């Protein structure tokens, strides 16, 4: 309880010290939430065609019918699991998980900058504002009004990069495991994001090549990343080998 009290005390002190930046960040988050949730709240139909596919696959998974489409089943599995666990119609989850993912993508920017550059609230606000107010960036906000697998996977892109950088900074195994989990999630959800994260890891490895000369560090990194990627690939490999209608064309197109 003392740690929780200390945490909230530090948060309060930070808000008092940087109240103007905090207000700007809150305003940016509110505007981002308005843009992303407006369609889902005011319309019953989905903003893109893809959510109908995800909802169909999720219903098939709930009925123990798997791998009947071209999409990797990871995102639909999330929807199906949430629907079964919370006893919620998958339509309602698909309707709102898109804008929720969009908000988590914005918060991932806050998380990454806070961890990598420290307590510079105006810099954090500027980065978040550019992403929220400029719709021409990758994964523009029009895509974040709907349940799309790439946007959901992108939630874990920046955290994965941060955890891997933190591992080489502090040598905490927990950071490496979290980086491996982020990779596994992206492999399960969307190949494009997984390839982007894997390339980011390669850049981090290249920057920290001296650390990897230590064979214990190299083996630890190779083991965690290898197991994460291999384990997350099992569903697609299994489907490819056992289900005649399933193919890897969607995955291959994203990798290319």
Overview of this structure, please?
The protein has 256 residues and is mainly α. Helix content is 78%, strand content 0%. It is built from 13 helices and no strands. The model has no long low-confidence stretch (mean pLDDT 86).
Q: Terminal Cα separation, in Å? A: 50 Å
Percent of residues in β-strands: under 5%
Helix count, DSSP H or I runs of 4 or more residues: 13
Strand runs, count: 0
Structural class from helices and strands? Answer: mainly alpha
Give unreliable regions as ranges. Answer: none
Shape category: globular
CA gyration radius, whole angstroms: 20 Å
Summarize the model shown.
With 256 residues, this protein is mostly helical. It is built from 13 helices and no strands.
Q: What are its keywords?
A:
single chain; 256 residues; mainly alpha; 13 helices; 78% helix; 0% strand; globular
């Amino acid at each position: 309880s003392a740690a929780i009290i200390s945490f909230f005390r530090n948060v309060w002190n930070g808000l008092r010290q940087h109240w103007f930046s905090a207000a700007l960040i809150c305003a940016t988050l509110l505007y981002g939430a308005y843009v992303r949730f407006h369609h889902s709240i005011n319309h019953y139909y989905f903003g893109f065609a893809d959510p109908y596919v995800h909802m169909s696959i999720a219903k098939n998974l709930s009925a123990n019918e798997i791998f009947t489409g071209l999409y990797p089943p990871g995102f639909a599995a999330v929807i199906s699991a949430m629907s079964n666990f919370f006893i919620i119609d998958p339509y309602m989850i698909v309707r709102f998980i898109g804008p929720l993912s969009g908000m988590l993508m914005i918060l991932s920017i806050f998380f990454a900058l806070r961890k990598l550059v420290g307590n510079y609230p105006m810099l954090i606000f500027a980065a978040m504002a550019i992403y929220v107010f400029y719709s021409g960036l990758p994964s523009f906000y029009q895509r974040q009004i709907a349940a799309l697998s790439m946007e959901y996977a992108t939630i874990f892109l920046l955290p994965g990069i941060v955890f891997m950088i933190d591992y080489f900074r502090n040598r905490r195994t927990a950071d490496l495991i979290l980086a491996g989990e982020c990779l596994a999630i992206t492999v399960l959800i969307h190949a494009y994001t997984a390839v982007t994260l894997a390339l980011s890891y390669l850049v981090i490895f290249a920057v920290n090549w001296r650390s990897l000369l230590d064979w214990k560090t190299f083996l630890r990194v190779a083991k965690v990343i290898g197991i994460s990627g291999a384990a997350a690939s099992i569903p697609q490999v299994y489907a490819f080998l056992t289900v005649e209608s399933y193919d890897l064309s969607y995955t291959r197109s994203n990798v290319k």
